[in-house]
Write a structure and sequence with these properties.
This protein is mainly alpha-helical. It is 59% helix and 12% strand.
């Protein structure tokens, strides 16, 4: 069999105990939808690049734009999406806005993704 083929059952046999366990522990549809939407945010390489910068340090929008070779407007657009999804937080210092990862969960998600890829 080729490695990209999917193995299927040759007979239909349900395992009621496993199905019951899964049904009892399955999150509701709204929670699953929200989770899928969260993972969509990680599907954009620009947002991943921003998160990697913030993985290392709290930085202002100017620094992000310079580091990633983008305009502040483009960075701000992506930061808005990341902030709406509670992945980053901001604070003002005078006329500058500094961004950092929202919490250790974000650091864990990124770290585990890199570990999964063997990076």
């Amino acid at each position: 069999m080729k490695t990209n083929e999917v193995d299927t059952c040759e007979v239909t046999e349900l395992h009621a105990d496993k199905l019951q366990y899964v049904q009892e522990h399955m999150p509701d549809e709204d929670s699953l939808y929200d989770l899928a939407e969260l993972f969509k945010v990680f599907g954009d390489s620009t947002r991943i690049r921003i998160l990697f910068v913030l993985f290392e340090a709290e930085v202002c929008v100017c620094d992000l734009a310079e580091t990633l070779g983008m305009t502040q407007s483009a960075i701000s657009h992506q930061l808005r999406i990341l902030k709406q999804n509670r992945l980053v937080k901001s604070r003002r210092e005078g006329k500058q806005a500094f961004y950092s990862l929202a919490d250790d969960h974000v650091r864990t998600i990124i770290g585990q993704g890199m570990e999964h890829l063997g990076c």
